[in-house]
TrEMBL record:
One Pfam match: Wzy_C
Protein name as catalogued: O-antigen ligase
Organism domain of life: Bacteria
Subcellular location: Membrane
Membrane topology: Multi-pass membrane protein
Extent of the signal sequence: none
Keywords linked to the UniProt accession: Ligase, Membrane, Transmembrane, Transmembrane helix
Length: 546
């Protein structure tokens, strides 16, 4: 068992090994099973497990001593960061090869967090704020690890497509849980608690607004659930529009679950996020797809009004009352407090995670929270993340000539647009599911940009994808696929005279002069005319009729 564990921890970071090295003679059956398991581990598989942990385990359950930084998904994100850093030790395993703009942006973001932490230490701070700053460092390390692992670790377009399918599947399961909560009011997250974890909050996973249940499933708030489902909606639509034979109904069910649950969260951020995604996606669709989408949305609105009377009216009032309701005025009242805090620490802020709601106030705007906690430098770093995700996705669309890859790139661009908009409507970095998903999407945008530039004609399936360069897969443990080099055929000198050599040589003419004469005739005249003349000489017994 110790050999299996050591293989799982070390072998993925040492690159590809030969068959004899992977299966030594002295290794037992258990060791061979462990080696076989290691040979199938790649970053896409690890990120798929991360998605399952992030989506299916309730975010409010944490490892008690670690607090908000102790969510299972957060701990796995930190492990991914350690895995990525350990791969940088040797040039043979490093994933840092080739151009990748996201690395610079992520380093800038982490540097701004470290600078804010250092600036916090210059003044005495309460113990709660110091603990919050320590927690912020752990969370930032995990976010960076997820983004970098996806950006440099995903080795092929088909592996990225597998990760996309699993993201949509996880979102569909969470949406189904939200539907059950909306109609029944049952706190399902309480039944999904893992032994050994403790609840970080005592609130129920079902809230109410205007007599409607507001589900949050495995998220920590209905706003977070609505934004997460809205971010996954473009990816689900991509799967439906490019479904393989026999999988259309599965994709239809996934899209239906997402579209049905988003309005049931009664979240203005989610509804406006759908509009943002539509603004990005509709221009790249054909007229037929636009008409079908419009008909489906119209029929869905009528059906929703019939099944849940009053829900669509509540959502309409949420959108039309922007600027006059209590939620909007509470957000505008934050500007004075934010201005005072920024004036005191303008450049690096007071530390990520130190602006505690119980001590100060709730800032329902992550950009305001970032400028307070990490200063203007941190705000610039956060904006640079969203700008990088958008530009990388759009760059992948321009680089690829495959229609399916181009559409997927536009879907990732829509996802980043939804995330960038939603960060302005609530304090997103305080919610683990939406934050980790945002950094994972950011890494997927960077991976798609890299893979589209390496092979612009590659597709998302194994039948159309080209053989990748093995360096990225080797760097993080997956087995590279080495293209088979064709064996060069031996060079054979052509012998033109044997093609036209007569069956019987004429008397009085030696063999060598005749070969020279025919080769010269071939060089001088047209090949077809020369062959006809040679054929008539080959058969002296047959003559053409005049």
């Amino acid at each position: 068992m110790s050999r299996v564990l050591s293989s799982l921890l070390v072998a993925p970071l040492t690159g590809h090994r030969s068959r004899s090295e992977r299966s030594p003679a002295g290794l037992g059956r258990v060791g061979r099973v462990g080696q076989a398991l290691v040979s199938r581990i790649d970053p896409a598989t690890v990120l798929s497990v991360f998605v399952a942990v992030l989506m299916l385990l309730p975010s409010r359950y944490v490892v008690g001593p670690l607090g908000a930084a102790g969510t299972p998904a957060g701990l796995m994100a930190v492990a991914c960061m350690l895995w990525y850093l350990s791969a940088l030790i040797t040039p043979h395993t490093t994933p840092v090869r080739g151009r990748q703009p996201l690395r610079t942006v992520v380093v800038f973001f982490v540097g701004s967090v470290l600078a804010s932490y250092a600036a916090m230490q210059t003044e005495p701070r309460p113990a709660l704020e110091i603990n919050g700053a320590d927690r912020g460092l752990i969370l930032a390390a995990g976010w960076a690890g997820i983004a970098l692992l996806a950006a440099d670790g995903i080795s092929r377009l088909e592996r990225l497509e597998v990760l996309r399918r699993r993201l949509v599947t996880g979102g569909s399961i969470v949406a189904a849980l939200g539907l059950v909560q909306f109609f029944s009011g049952i706190d399902i997250a309480g039944y999904l608690a893992v032994p050994g974890l403790t609840a970080n909050s005592d609130s129920s996973s079902v809230l109410r607004r205007d007599e409607f249940n507001r589900p949050m499933a495995t998220a920590t708030h209905p706003i977070e659930l609505g934004v997460v489902l809205t971010m996954l909606l473009p990816l689900a639509l991509h799967g439906l529009l490019h479904a393989r034979p026999g999988t259309v109904w599965r994709h239809r069910i996934q899209v239906f679950l997402l579209l049905a649950t988003i309005p049931m969260t009664v979240s203005r951020s989610a509804i406006l996020g759908v509009l943002v995604a539509a603004v990005v996606m509709v221009p790249v669709w054909s007229g037929k797809i636009r008409a079908v989408v419009l008909i489906v949305l119209g029929c869905g609105t009528v059906a929703m009004q019939a099944v849940v009377p009053g829900l669509m009216g509540t959502i309409r009032n949420l959108v039309t009352s922007i600027g006059s309701d209590s939620s909007t005025t509470a957000r505008t009242d934050d500007y004075g407090a934010v201005l005072a805090a920024v004036t005191h620490r303008p450049w690096f802020g007071q530390g990520l995670g130190t602006y505690l709601p119980m001590t100060y106030r709730i800032l329902d705007n992550q950009y305001l929270g970032s400028v307070v906690e990490t200063g203007l430098v941190g705000l610039a770093a956060l904006l640079a993340l969203f700008a990088a995700g958008w530009l990388l996705a759009r760059g992948a669309r321009r680089a690829s000539s495959n229609p399916e890859v181009r559409h997927l790139a536009q879907c990732f661009a829509a996802t980043m647009a939804v995330a960038g908009f939603s960060f302005g409507t609530f304090d997103a970095l305080s919610f683990p599911m939406v934050t980790n998903l945002t950094f994972l999407m950011l890494g997927c945008c960077a991976a798609l940009w890299r893979l589209a530039r390496e092979n612009p004609t590659a597709g998302l399936s194994e039948t159309t994808a080209a053989v990748p360069e093995p360096r990225f897969a080797e760097a993080l443990g997956s087995l590279p696929r080495t293209p088979i080099q064709p064996r060069p055929e031996p060079l054979v000198e052509p012998r033109y005279w044997r093609e036209t050599e007569p069956e019987t040589e004429p008397e009085g003419v030696s063999e060598e002069p005749q070969r020279t004469h025919r080769a010269t005739s071939r060089d001088r005249g047209h090949p077809a005319q020369w062959r006809r003349q040679a054929t008539s000489r080959q058969r002296p017994g047959r003559h053409r009729k005049s």
